[in-house]
Write a structure and sequence with these properties.
This protein has helices at residues 4-23, 42-56, 70-78, 108-116, and strands at 29-35, 61-66, 86-91, 96-101. It is 45% helix and 21% strand. It is built from four helices and four strands. A hairpin with a 4-residue loop joins strand 3 and strand 4 (96-101). It is α+β, with helices and mostly antiparallel strands and 117 residues long. The protein has one domain: 3-Layer(aba) Sandwich (Glutaredoxin). The protein has a four-stranded mixed beta sheet, with helices on both faces.
């Protein structure tokens, strides 16, 4: 049998958990790379992805998408990407934290810094 005190304490605990969870929640960052596979930047993008995975030991999810596919085109439109290749750091809610676009890819350390933020 649950007494009133236990029920009130449990309710208070759950309320504090809910409020604290909204105020402080661990956000997972993901990296999205949009590119055109038939461009001169393909090898640079492949090398960037490979190096990023080696440096982070797969601590962060990295997704490589062709802008020529339906899914890649939708992501480019969603995040307003106009130049390729583009590297985006996106949180687990889909909010873009940072974007680098154009012929110069960012430093891996830069991307990691945004992933840790």
């Amino acid at each position: 049998m649950i007494s009133f005190n236990n029920l009130a304490t449990e309710h208070t605990f759950r309320l504090v958990q809910a409020v604290f969870g909204l105020w402080y929640s661990e956000v997972t960052m993901n990296v999205l790379v949009l590119y055109r596979p038939n461009s001169e930047y393909r090898s640079a993008v492949d090398e960037f992805v490979r190096s990023f995975q080696q440096r982070t030991a797969d601590a962060y999810k990295i997704e490589l998408l062709s802008a020529d596919t339906r899914k890649g085109s939708a992501k480019a439109q969603l995040y307003d990407v106009m130049q390729f290749p583009a590297v985006l750091v996106v949180d687990d809610q889909g909010l873009m934290q940072q974007m680098w676009a154009g012929e110069y890819l960012p430093l891996i350390d830069e991307v990691i810094a945004y992933c840790r933020a």
